[in-house]
Amino acid sequence: MNQNFIRFLESLQNVEKTRNFNVFKDYSLTELSQTWNDIRSKYSPSSPVRFSVIGTNAKGSTSHYLAHLLSSPYNIVGLYTSPHLISPIERLSILNNPSNDSDIEDFFANDFSKYSDQLKGLSYFEFLTIFTYFYFQSKSTKFEIWEAGLGGRLDATKLVQAEVIVLTKIGLDHSEILGDTKEKICIEKLGIIGSNTKFVFSMDQKDTKLNQLIESIVSKHKLPLKIFKSDLDDDDIPYLEKNFKYAKFIIDQMLDDGYLRRTDIIKKSFTELPKPKGRMEVLSKNPYIVFDPAHNPDAIRYSLQEIFHQKNRIHLILGSLRDKDRQGILDELRNFPVASLCFFEGEGFGVFPRVSLPFPTQTVSSISELGTFVKSVDGAIFALGSFRLYEIVSKVLQITTIMEN
Predict the structure, then answer these.
(1) Rounded distance, CA 214 to CA 208, Å?
(2) Is the peptide bond before 287 cis (omega within 30 degrees of 0)?
(3) Beta sheet of 49-54, edge-to-edge order
């Protein structure tokens, strides 16, 4: 299954895995852009409508709903997201002309491996981005949704030259790269705006100064800005539904502007569309285990508010990568009636501060120890803190043979 593609991909420097963000200190897109343009000159030009989705929280689910709302029977839609839950193949998907593993392997072997010498100096994310761009082109996509990685101004996805920029919630994350304030992070994110940009959309940041900064940046580019404000204060609405409504707002605005046609979209409600995998996903009903990748204090708060609307007695499994604000996450947890908390601090995960919390805690570092915790508790379990925890909890369920078939 994609052994040649995966083997090449895994040979590349993977900052997502090493968390060695020092490599970005003097980073620029110059070399990647040169490689990109050299390869692009060998392909026939294509002109799908491309969306760049940037922000700190809600990028993945907003991207998911944009793609599905545009996936009418007449459209082939490409969706590029990150990170993945199990396999990197999850990051590049085609709607209405489903791809499979052999499609990706064939494209790599027959069309893209010839550029291996040029590509072997790229990072994991850079290669996936450039590969996906041309893979989508081979599928004759009409629309493409590109979820940015860490930033915007220096993000590899900037090179897709999107017509539509979609800004989600700004929060404090990756501060060592993007800046130590929301304002600095916002400037970095909106640095993805390019000469091809025609529309900019933003969630209401619930911060007057931040909204004014966004308006100022966009106005300097002489672009229209539309801010989505509806329902964002209603805590009774699941965060996924809020992000669906934001995606629908974007589509409706582009319809009103004549940039999209009614035949480009599907008329389905939030409940009729599939949920993005790994977001508030029920992994098991007996025991009841829900997973969400919330990994910074703001996102943790939103996810906990939602799960506590559903269940009263909740145990947490929490794992966080080394570069995250683990103290800030713990500060958020204090505000919820958690039954108990199990820290997962296995290989690749960070160690949480040893502070007093108003509920029982324990720490595990292996799948078997986590399985013991799962068997021992009475009540619902909510696993969150990192995409990497998804595979670990899934393995726990398989090993303990308690996952429902």
Answers:
(1) 10
(2) yes
(3) 92-95, 77-80, 143-147, 49-54, 164-167, 199-203, 225-228
R_g of the chain, CA atoms, integer Å: 21
Three-state secondary structure readout of 263-292 = HHCCCCCHHHCCCCCCCCEEEEECCEEEEE
The pair of structure tokens assigned to 356 is 């007093």
Six-digit token pair at 175? 């501060």
Question: Which pLDDT does position 96 carry in this prediction?
Answer: 79
Q: Report d(CA 359, CA 352) in Å as an integer.
A: 15
The three-class DSSP label of residue 164 is strand
Q: Rounded to whole angstroms, how far apart are CA atoms 119 and 17?
A: 19
CA dist., res. 299 & res. 318, Å (int): 13
Per DSSP, helices labelled H in 80-233 are 101-107, 116-119, 124-138, 175-178, 182-190, 208-220
Query: What pLDDT band is residue 322 in, cutting at 50, 70 and 90?
Result: confident
| Helix boundaries (H) for 142-237 | 175-178, 182-190, 208-220
Count the alpha carbons within 13 Å of 283 in the hemisphere toward its beta carbon.
Answer: 26
Q: How many CB atoms lie within 10 A of CB 6?
A: 17
3-state helix vs strand vs coil in the chain, percent to 5: 45, 15, 40
Model pTM score: 0.93
